[in-house]
Specification:
The chain has helices at residues 2-35, 92-121, 138-142, 161-171, 215-241, 253-264, 268-286, 294-307, 313-340; strands at 40-56, 59-74, 123-124, 130-133, 149-153, 156-157, 176-182, 185-191, 194-196, 201-203, 206-208, 210-211. The protein is α+β, with helices and mostly antiparallel strands. The strands form 5 sheets. The protein has a 4-stranded antiparallel sheet. A two-stranded antiparallel ribbon has the order 1-2. It has a two-stranded antiparallel ribbon with strand order 3-12. The longest helix is centred in the N-terminal third of the chain and has 34 residues, at 2-35.
């Protein structure tokens, strides 16, 4: 029974994560296409056979069986058209914006998800301010109180929380003088740390203060978290292009499915954080200037915009087909690798 419940939990988590990422990405393309006056024929979530759909205005909306992608089908995208609203006839710079909009929405989604998580989990204080004093631990017994700001230990200045935790591990069980700022007054306290077998380290029973429920602080930190993740992902990709990574370092759909199930067990906030990280990955990967990806389209459209000459649609079709075949082959390769190593990640 537990196996069935775990499988159901994983399935729900996978559908939620993939659905959220795909919907946001395609919504970006769809919205900018509509704003640019392009005639959108279909907005689809998923690939393969259609489960259900409906038509509103000039656009068909559909939900398809396989949650591995989606698409926005625009008039003139795959064939020539004389319609002024066909995507092949609009300004190349507008087409570039349409191509970039999917990745942009993935970054926006990441900011939203990180903001929700940080709003509920809290933002760690930048200064070494004590948030929680644990009952019946050395700090409480010494008279430490919540909101005390740590100034120094044994007269050595403490600038950040990591300085304090590092001192505790070096100090071990020796009694030390803790100087804190409380109500604008300096207070000296003597504390003797105790070894915690469960944590396998010396503790005094205090935690760093975190600020919860502040939407503006959460948004600011959500943007910062997204920017940091984008920078980290770009560094990873540059390392891959330089040959600094192996195939075993990459994960495909199978790995994502397994990880989604594992993260879902930890709670909804952890799942949202995981989805935010994946959304950033999806956005960055789509911006790679490779055929069949949004970044590949941007390169083609930039050439057209700069030269003022339209590239033959048939040639573009062949280039994108080759790119799709290569990407599909890589996905199969990574998927096979994940299947054979599924027990190790």
């Amino acid at each position: 029974m537990q196996t069935i419940l775990n499988g159901l939990q994983t399935a729900i988590a996978v559908i939620f994560v993939f659905g959220l990422l795909i919907a946001s990405h395609e919504l970006g393309h769809f919205t900018v296409a509509k704003l640019s006056g392009v005639k959108v024929l279909e907005f689809a979530l998923g690939m393969g056979p259609k489960i259900f759909g409906f038509k509103r205005g000039e656009t068909n909306y559909s939900l398809r069986l396989l949650p591995i992608g989606g698409y926005v089908k625009m008039l003139g995208e795959e064939e020539d058209s004389n319609d002024p609203r066909a995507v092949c006839n609009i300004n190349p710079w507008k087409r570039i914006l349409i191509s970039l909009a999917g990745a942009f929405m993935n970054f926006v989604l990441a900011i939203v998800l990180f903001t929700i998580v940080l709003y509920n989990v809290g933002i760690p204080a930048k200064e070494p301010i004590i948030g929680v004093v644990v009952d019946n631990r050395p700090a409480m017994e010494a008279g430490v109180k919540a909101d005390d700001k740590i100034l120094s230990v044994n007269d050595t200045k403490i600038d950040k929380w990591e300085d304090f935790t590092a001192f505790l591990q070096d100090n071990k069980d020796k009694t030390f003088k803790l100087t804190v700022l409380r109500n604008n007054k300096t207070v000296d306290l003597n504390i003797t740390p105790k070894f915690d077998e469960k944590e396998n380290r010396y503790l005094v029973g205090v935690n760093l203060k975190v600020e919860k429920g502040n939407i503006f602080v959460s948004i600011k930190n959500g943007v910062s978290e997204t920017f940091s993740a984008v920078t980290w992902m770009v560094d990873i990709l540059l390392g891959a292009f330089k040959g600094e990574m192996k195939l075993s370092d990459f994960g495909g759909p199978v790995a994502v499915v397994k990880m989604s199930g594992e993260v879902a067990k930890l709670g909804i906030l952890q799942l949202l954080s995981f989805a935010g990280a994946l959304s950033i990955n999806l956005g960055i990967i789509n911006l790679i200037p490779f055929p069949a990806l949004d970044g590949g389209w941007v390169v083609i459209l930039l050439i057209q915009a700069i030269t003022g000459k339209k590239i033959d649609e048939n040639k573009i079709g062949y280039i994108n087909l080759i790119g799709f075949v290569v990407l599909f082959g890589l996905m199969i390769l990574v998927t096979v690798k994940d299947i054979f190593t599924i027990g190790s990640f």
